[in-house]
Amino acid sequence: MRHLFHLPKNKIYLCGNSLGPQPKAAAEQLAVELESWKVRAVEGWWNGDTPAGGWLGFHKRVENDLASIVGASAPEVTIANALTVNLHLMLVSFFRPQGRRRKVVMEAGAFPSDQHAIISQLKFHGLDPETDLIEVGPRTGEFAIRTEDITAAIHDAGDELALVLWSGIHYYTGQFFDLGAIAEAGKSVGAQVGFDLAHAVGNVPLTLHDWGCDFAVWCSYKYLNGGPGAPGGLFVHERHHESEDLPRFAGWWGHRESDRFMMRREFRPEIGASGWQISTAPVLGLAPLLASLPLFAEAGGMAALRTRSLLLTGKLHALLSKLPGLTIITPSDENQRGAQLSVYVPGHRPKLEHQLSEAGLIVDYRQDNLLGGDGGVLRLAPAPLYATEEEVEKAVEILAGALELG
Ligand SMILES: *Cc1c(COP(=O)(O)O)cnc(C)c1O
Prior knowledge:
Layout: E1 5-6, E2 12-13, E3 22-23, H1 26-40, H2 60-70, E4 77-79, H3 83-94, E5 103-107, H4 112-124, H5 129-132, E6 133-136, H6 147-157, E7 161-167, H7 179-188, E8 192-196, H8 208-211, E9 215-218, E10 233-236, H9 283-292, H10 294-298, H11 301-321, E11 327-328, E12 341-345, H12 352-358, E13 361-362, E14 364-367, E15 376-380, H13 389-405
Parallel strand pairs: 2-13, 5-6, 5-7, 7-8, 8-9
Antiparallel strand pairs: 1-3, 4-10, 9-10, 11-12, 12-15, 14-15
Helix pairs in contact: 1-9, 3-4, 6-7, 11-13
The site of pyridoxal-5'-phosphate (PLP) has 13 residues, from helix 3 and helix 4.
């Protein structure tokens, strides 16, 4: 599928975990909507050049593709807002602390935005993050969080647990969690379960419906290649679609499309995840997704991509393991990782990312703040839609060269 993407010239691009490259068809999809705006103006909401019609219900044009990528039915997913906004909206509906049941279990060292979201929600409910947020981390000397430690923390919290909020793939260590086991443990103690799939969606196969989590959120600009700041996705399990007592922050775009423009005061949500939309669909932000999402099915679906991903990342793992002085902090068990490998590089190297880019390798490098020491963590992600084996080999050569320079 590589030929279907614009990739930075003369660079190996292993940074799709941060911003996916531009699908070549994205410009065309944007042009269609710009043209419709130009020639139809407001009538573009109802009329368009495609059988799908105008912009009204634009989100529905991506729901089938999204649903197969995350393992859900189309009504269980939608696209709206952005990841952290959707996380807050989901927490309004699914984090309902009451009496003893008010605690949250989450992974230690979660992405800062998720920490900000949950801590602000706890405070909003008058709770104390010091006591009501239980963070589960790796054991001393380990980088991965053991599933048994996660499920034990959930069972220990028991009927005090209101919510399990967990990431699909840890953004920093690259660990792919056993989401089925986490959902099962959370549901077994009567808690709600939500996943942040920012680094998992479009990277690894997911079966959200069958795992039985209550909600999930993700962004569209990492492995989904939807473009910088593309609208985010959300999943609400079918079991909640009819529950009218579920509180939510509502807006008119979540109202049933059939009579939205009757402009009544009464709110009647769309059945399913679309009922959590709030504002007018950002059509120009959504258009590139019409180019990017169908590529996953064209590639044979997530199972086929996973096969390719295991090959690429397995190769990267084998080659990196031979470089002295580095520590791969991502699990070596391929079932516990996606495309990304995170590598601890000792020593203070503020220019490493720039040096690598100059040498033809785009990756992500951050000063470490999790493991201690003066080093940093490189994240390398050969995304299966467009990365090649030759690139993986070349990338390790470039890295070896840059590290020798110090
Ligand atoms: C990338 C990422 C985000 C980004 O959130 P936005 O609201 O899209 O800015 C949030 N959480 C995780 C885990 C991420 O990896």
